[in-house]
Design a protein that fits this description.
single chain; 2 helices; 6 strands
Length: 93
């Protein structure tokens, strides 16, 4: 919100934001979102993402492929969706 873009606080609300739904095999771009049950990460490039997680107990940028394997094996489960959010600025901000 501080940057002038709508962004709900919770991951389940963020998953419903407007934008382009990405198929599993679509290349990721910086700013794309990856969702799991109760969790979201943001791609920082085609092969890396940033997210807060219990595995490292901090916010980390890490390679997507091994992180997906680890997260999928945990209680969070598989990726539920991938989104390229609508980046239309909010009027008045």
């Amino acid at each position: 919100m501080a940057c002038g873009f709508a962004c709900p606080a919770d991951s389940h609300q963020q998953e419903l934001m407007p934008g382009v739904r990405l198929p599993d095999d679509a290349p990721l771009q910086s700013g794309d979102l990856i969702f799991w049950k109760g969790h979201v990460a943001m791609a920082t490039g085609p092969r890396t993402m940033i997210h807060a997680n219990a595995h490292h107990m901090m916010v980390v940028e890490e390679p997507i492929a091994p992180a997906l394997d680890r997260i999928c094996a945990a209680e969070t489960g598989p990726v539920t969706s991938r989104l390229r959010p609508d980046r239309t600025p909010i009027r008045g901000i």
